[in-house]
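Lab notes, practical 5.
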Amino acid sequence: MSGSEMTLAQCQQRVDAWISRFEEGYFHPLTNMARLTEEVGELAREVNHRFGQKTKKKDEAPGDLGMEMADIMFVLICMANREKIDLGEAFDRMMAKVDQRDTSRWTLKQ
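Output from the prediction step:
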C-alpha cells in the first residue's frame, strides 16, 4: 500500500514495523526533537530557495518539498509511536479545537 492511500494509523504501524526490526529501537525524545528541528530546517531552506530571496548555488541539486515534508512526518510518527500517541485521535482533537476557535475568524467562501 502506498503512503497516499494510508491512514495515519497505518503510517504509524508501518513506521513501527520498520523501527522494530532494529535492536536500537526508537531514539530518545531529545534526539528525536533534534532530528525534527533539523528536518524542519531542511524544509525551510528549500522553501526559501523556491520562494524566498536566497537562491541555490549553481552546483546544488534541486530539492524535493514533498520529501522534506515526509522526513518531518517520519520523525513526528517516531515521536508519537515512542510515546504511544494515536496521531489520528490527536489530529481529530486538534481539528475540533481550530474549528471551534477559528471558524468565525476567517471569511467563509460562498
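Observations recorded by the TA: The radius of gyration is 17 Å. The chain has a mean pLDDT of 93.
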